[in-house]
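Hey team,

Filing this mostly as a record. A colleague (T.K.) asked me to run one chain through the structure pipeline before their review meeting, and I want the input and output archived in the tracker in case anyone asks later how it was produced. No errors, nothing strange. Just documentation.

Input sequence:
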Amino acid sequence: MTDILNIIACLLTIGFGLFGFLRPRYTAAALDLAPTDTTMGLSEMRASVGGLFVAAGLAALWLDAPLAYAMIGFAFAGAATGRVLSLIFDRPPVGKLAVFGGIEAALAAWLIFGNIG
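Output structure:
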């Protein structure tokens, strides 16, 4: 069962990353990010929201090692922690924060605790 859940988590990671990688304008709009006078924001979406997660998910599947899956979990834990800090300091829309943060926290919990001792 662990193997199946790891694969599902990696496929979700890759899928979420593909939105940022291939559809940065859609992803920016979904995240309530406004365009600026340059296209550098699109580059950032493709890199940090897209390619990073696509590569991490693919690498974990390729390596097929518990620590590889756990490292993706730590990345999601960092994202979820950032959302909690944002809730405290920035007051973003709670609905979106709860959805995105909940997904990140759930993936983090599974990938870390399901793969480390």
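Quick notes for T.K.: The two ends are 16 Å apart (CA to CA). The chain has one domain: 2-113.
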